[in-house]
Amino acid sequence: xxxxxxxxxxxxxxxxxxAKEKETKTGNDSDNTATVALSGTxxxxxxxxxxxxxxxxxxxxxxxxxxxxxxxxxxxxxxxxEYKLVANYISYKKSAETLHVDASKNQVxxxxxxxx
Length: 116
Description:
- The protein has 116 residues and is of the alpha+beta class.
- The chain contains 1 helix and 7 strands.
- The strands form 2 sheets. The chain has a 4-stranded antiparallel sheet, with no helix packed on it. The protein has a 3-stranded mixed sheet with strand order 4-1-7, with no helix packed on it.
- Residues 1-19 form the signal peptide.
């Protein structure tokens, strides 16, 4: 009986150690993936006025934010790649812009046209 119990404990211990090693390796791999912050400013295309409260969304995701009192927005921890940003604001035409984001290109200015 002691041998069976010892065998079961040894197997459980071995499986736990193996699972922990895989988890650690996976965690290290994800740490090597660089992310960037994507930021920008939204303003009126005619007057140049900074627009407050504009919804800016990364198309195809649930990720969205709103511009602050200076018309600025930002997204943190974005993986480099191609994204479509959609800006939507009352009384303005919706704007959609596709851009490639990486460490050297992570700023965008969005002009919204009045819908009148």
